[in-house]
Specification:
The chain is α/β, with parallel strands linked by helices and about 180 residues long. The chain has a single domain, classed as Molybdenum Cofactor Biosythetic Enzyme, Chain A. It is about 30% helix and about 20% strand. It is built from 5 helices and 7 strands, in the order βαβαβαβαβββα. A 7-stranded mixed beta sheet has the order 2-3-1-4-7-6-5, sandwiched between helices. The longest helix has 13 residues, at about 75-85. The chain is globular and about 35 Å long. Mean pLDDT is about 85; it is low at about 170-178.
Amino acid sequence: RGAGLRPLLVVAGSAEPGVVEQVTRLVAAGARHVPLAPEALAGPDTVALPALAPGTVTVVSVDGSGGVRPGAARRIVAGLARAVSALPERADLVLTGGETARRVLDAAGVTTLWPVGQIHHGAVHSRTPDGRSVVTRPGSFGGPDSFLHIAAALRPRLLSSSLPPAPATAPSQQGVTQ
């Protein structure tokens, strides 16, 4: 089916403090990190993201190291959505933060998601009509290895990190019957 060859793009749009650690651990396992300046995202021009190579994991995040101006969050998220939707590659997506997920999906023209299952508590795996995977997760959910678990579920054996066991989920949430 080729789904494993599609790039995987993690869009970390949440300002939750735990997201920084989640990004750090994903990058340590081999993902490419593209931090984006909030001023550029909040501006009128679309920020150009680097090309996504097939079979790779890339995480984009808002670089909060210099602080973010109060009241700019909506414009920053809109800029993040424009940047992602401008990519020519049809990537599988991991979207964290409710407003980020909504804006990115709208900008990408994704109007239908079919739930597949839950990777861990709050990390819902869905499919688009064209067969791409989309995982949505609130910014405040997941432990420090959340992005690693999600990436490993979508791209087994792609990242180099030895992964701790995934949090247990009830069999009914994984579609397993006994």
